[in-house]
Design a protein that fits this description.
Layout (H helix, E strand, L loop, with lengths): L14 H14 L13 H18 L4
Helix pairs in contact: 1-2
């Protein structure tokens, strides 16, 4: 039995544009649906937001 782990499958969307898109509505003062077409679809970004927020909360040691 091998102790090597399998690498995760490649993502179809790079993470950096998604994180930029999460921060954009706050910085620009707009709603999720009003995001420019340069970013991934607002639905994908909005779906990732709770996971990102929880990760930040855990990293900061708050609950």
């Amino acid at each position: 039995m091998s102790l090597l782990t399998c690498p995760s499958p490649p993502s179809s969307t790079r993470l950096h544009p998604l994180l930029d898109a999460i921060r954009y509505p706050v910085a620009a003062g707009i709603s999720w649906r009003a995001m420019p077409a340069d970013f991934p679809g607002w639905g994908r970004v909005y779906a990732l937001f709770p996971r990102w927020r929880e990760g930040r909360r855990d990293a900061n040691g708050t609950s």
